[in-house]
Design brief:
Elements: E1 19-29, E2 34-45, E3 50-54, H1 61-68, E4 76-81, E5 84-85, H2 91-100, E6 102-105, H3 119-129, H4 134-147, H5 163-174, E7 181-185, H6 193-210, E8 213-217, E9 229-234, E10 237-249, E11 252-261, H7 273-278, E12 285-290, E13 293-298
Helix pairs in contact: 3-4, 3-5, 4-5, 5-6
């Protein structure tokens, strides 16, 4: 059962994003310490998109995923998922949101599955909690386990499954109630390369077949070849994105990755640190608007306008 909440219009007039975050902040407070996990983050995710979020440890990517999952609430800014304002939802609304509007996959398989239930029973459980009749729950579990290639393991307990098989059951559990959004936090972090391939293949097929929006947080350096778009987070802000596209030339089709730096809603441009270091740019830089381009130069460099050149 999913909500019919209206989507938030895109201010640029494009298709409305399913996920919209603008100037998002999250501050973790303890007795004597404040940690700013998100610092004015902006993010848009289209309905039905298969995308990944990458970043170093402590960059804020898991904090963002927890907010989108309704497991945490932002300190300030705007965060909408399917038209729902995550900043103003009550605890009761968040519970309903987590149960029907979003599926979540943890890195640790033990957090996704109940150890004394079979694979099929694990998938049936969230359906039964929503009041779905037993026969319909069994049919849905059979459908999902078949979709992730595990119909032959439906009666096995989690301990009888490999790590990759457990994560594929976890995907089925997360999708049991047909949520329009699936979030995965390092879903292949404890798996070998072959098992990881199986997880990414299953996520890609379910995205294509069911139109579910999929957001993956990962450290996997090969993720760009498996998703439509990769967004990098640095210091609590989105900094870069990579799009995958097919390019045909001379009768041969090849996959091309286009890389962009991002400009946030406040006009901030996150220039990669290695570029700044190479140009010896510290606290200040010079900006020059050229013909169809923007130049960023060290503050020690004076660019001579064309009219002043000899």
């Amino acid at each position: 059962m999913t909500s019919s909440a209206p989507a938030i219009p895109d201010r640029d007039g494009a298709d409305a994003p399913y996920i919209l975050c603008e100037d998002l902040f999250k501050i973790h407070k303890s007795d004597e310490l404040e940690v700013v996990a998100l610092r004015g983050l902006d993010l848009k995710v289209r309905p039905g998109e298969l995308m990944a979020i990458v970043g170093a440890s402590g960059s804020g990517k898991s904090t963002l995923l927890n907010i989108l999952a309704g497991l945490d609430q932002p300190s300030a800014g705007r965060a909408f998922v399917g038209g729902r304002d995550l900043l103003t939802m009550t605890e009761g609304e968040l519970v309903r949101y987590r149960r029907s509007a979003v599926g979540f996959i943890w890195q640790q398989t033990g957090r996704n599955l109940i150890p004394y239930l079979s694979a099929a029973r694990n998938v049936e459980l969230p359906l039964m909690l929503e009041g779905v009749e037993a026969a319909a729950a069994r049919d849905r579990a059979r459908e999902l386990l078949d979709a992730v290639g595990l119909s032959h393991r439906r009666d096995h307990l989690p301990e009888q499954l490999s790590g990759g098989e457990q994560q594929r059951v976890s995907i089925a559990v997360a999708l049991a109630n047909r949520p329009p959004l699936l979030l995965a936090d390092e879903p292949t972090g404890e798996l070998d390369a072959i098992a990881a391939d199986g997880i990414y293949e299953a996520l890609g097929e379910l995205n294509a077949q069911q139109g579910v929006t999929v957001v993956i947080v990962t450290h996997d350096p090969e993720i760009a070849s498996r998703v439509d778009r990769v967004v990098a987070i640095r210091d609590g802000r989105t900094s870069m994105e990579i799009f995958r596209r097919a390019e045909r030339s001379g009768g041969v089709t090849r996959v091309v990755h286009d890389e962009y730096v991002l400009v946030d809603s406040a006009g901030r441009l996150q220039v990669p640190r290695e570029f700044l270091d190479r140009l010896s740019i510290g606290e200040r830089a010079r900006l020059f608007l050229g013909e169809g381009r923007l130049e960023v130069l060290p503050d020690s460099v004076r660019r001579v306008p064309p009219e002043e050149r000899p």
